[in-house]
Each structure stands twice: as structure tokens, then as C-alpha cells.
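Checklist before submission:
- one chain only
- standard amino acids only
- sequence pasted in full

Submission:
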Amino acid sequence: MPPKPITPDNAYLRLTALCARCEQAEGDLRKKLRDWGINSSDSNTIIERLKAERYLDNERYARAYCRDKLRFNGWGRIKIVYMLKGKGIEREFIDAALADIDEEQYLAILNEALAAKAKTLGSKSEEQIRASLLRFAASRGFEPALFFPAVSRLTGTCNED
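Returned file contents:
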């Protein structure tokens, strides 16, 4: 049995409740509206109303997302940018969010993540450990210019390529 269709007014109320709980991306809300069977004209009206009433703000979302993914997930700038682009966030808002990152905190998060990962690698050869740490840092979305020297310091190698 298909779900009961909801009205545009009901959809608006659901989205205001959702936005009041936590920041949301416009693209995610548009997807919800599509899934609920709301036509594009009504969707546009609802989205514009949410923006006018400050429930929805892509810049605020980008800043919160960036801050949370860095702090709680240990993600680097590359992965954060990729994920925000996937949510349809404008590049100017992404750049503003990345500008808020404290460089010392960013490097500390990278170094802590690498040190924790290194402890899990056990008795592998130095070359295997280095390769694992490089892959790990890249998968977390950190920039090669930052993680190559950090891995070299951690493994005690002089080679920083």
C-alpha cells in the first residue's frame, strides 16, 4: 500500500520541525519533498518560505557541516568539499566554511588520527605502515601537502614525496 500523500502545508510543517532540530541542506529538503510527492512548484514555494523565515540557510549549513565533520569525524578539507558539493551547496558557501577552520586544530586532528591509526598497524614493515598511513590520510580527505610530511615525521623517514 503506497504511503498517504501529504499536502504542501503539511510538508512545510514537517520541514520546519526538521529544520528546527538541526541544520539542513536545501538539496536534502528538495529530495524529501519529491519523495513525499510534492510538485516542483509547491516545492519551490516551500523552500523559498523556509529561506525567508531563516529555517533554511545553505551558508549556515555549510559552516555547521564543516565544523562537525572535522571535529567529530576527523575529515579533511577535500572530503568535506566533496560531500558539500554532493549536497548542492554553492562553492562560495563552501569556501566561507573552510575559511573558518583553525589551521592548528586541523593539523592536530590529522596528527591525532595518524597516530591512532599507526597504533593499530602492529608489526608490519615500515614501508607497509607508511603506505597504510598515506592511504588512511587520503581516504579521510586531507591534503597530500599536509599528510606526507606528517606521515614522514610519524614513521621517522626523511622521504617526503
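Reviewer check: DSSP finds nine helices and no strands in the chain.
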